[in-house]
Amino acid sequence: MSTMLTQSRRRSSDHFQPEDMEPQEQRRLRGLLEQIDYAAYVANRELIGHALAQADVAAFQKLAVLTAQARARWGAEAIRLAESGAPATPDQVARLTAARTAYDELSEAFDALRRMVERGYLPLK
């Protein structure tokens, strides 16, 4: 099983290939798996392409700016806490957590949308 590290979590990709299977049966299984993968590709392309038809490079630029702003807010909040010299209060930690969560979500969304373009699910204008 292989794993892929994204911004904040690991995704597993489990493509089991039994080794004790006859070569003919392995080819048949690979053919079936290719059909399954293609069905997923077509479904993603149609549904994502329809749902995000308005997406264009300008939307990605806006999302990139929004993500950078969230990252800057998170960093600024952390620096403010550090400069105070006092132990962080629960409210301060909650604000820092909210800022990180906002950045993480925006970053994950940007990466996911980029993968949609890369895989051909989302054609850009």
Automatic annotation (TrEMBL):
It comes from Brevundimonas olei. This is Phasin domain-containing protein. Residues 1-25 are annotated as: Disordered. Residues 11-25 have a biased composition (Basic and acidic residues). It comes from the Bacteria.
